[in-house]
Amino acid sequence: EPEVTQTPSHQVTQMGQEVILRCVPISNHLYFYWYRQILGQKVEFLVSFYNNEISEKSEIFDDQFSVERPDGSNFTLKIRSTKLEDSAMYFCASSVEGGANVLTFGAGSRLTVL
Amino acid sequence: AQSVTQLGSHVSVSEGALVLLRCNYSSSVPPYLFWYVQYPNQGLQLLLKYTTGATLVKGINGFEAEFKKSETSFHLTKPSAHMSDAAEYFCAVSDRRNAGNMLTFGGGTRLMVKP
Hints:
The complex is a heterodimer. Chain A is mostly beta strands. Chain A is built from no helices and eleven strands. Chain B is mostly beta strands. Chain B contains no helices and twelve strands. In chain B, about 35% of the residues are buried. At the A-B interface, β4, β5, β9 and β10 of A face β5, β6, β10 and β11 of B.
């Protein structure tokens, strides 16, 4: 069964460093997403991406964050100048279409900022 | 703005007992409704969804959920719990007025199944 692949599974970084989380969505999917879950809190929407541009973003997704689809397969989340409060599990997801279409999630990348 | 409330962050049942996980939402219009399950070290997997039509929806692994508009609820049930059902369950909604697919999640309910 097709799956969304995320790397790394766990990354530890120092405060102030830049981090890139990578995702390979399902090949025929057109919509891509990043969500995050801070330990003990809800899964929160960060951003959705369609047709090579951001289609929606939450208040969390400020200038510190950026997304990119540098080639036909990867979808990346860049976090500049990481802060302690960026420590979380980051989930990538993709879907064939928008609307009620089902998202397929990856297993997540755990980011720990020291 | 939408919100989702899952009553009970932890639910414990005996194997073979009824599973009931509660979900209530707040939205100005009835949203699309989803239940996702997360097993340890895995991503979120869709159990079932409601978009339109029959309000009782059946999902994978014997789970089902009923959309009750009057109660703004979408509770998840399974008649008989199995040990393999132990996981975290997330209720989520999305605004049907949006072309995108932004999900708003509840806080999750960890289901424990006792032998």
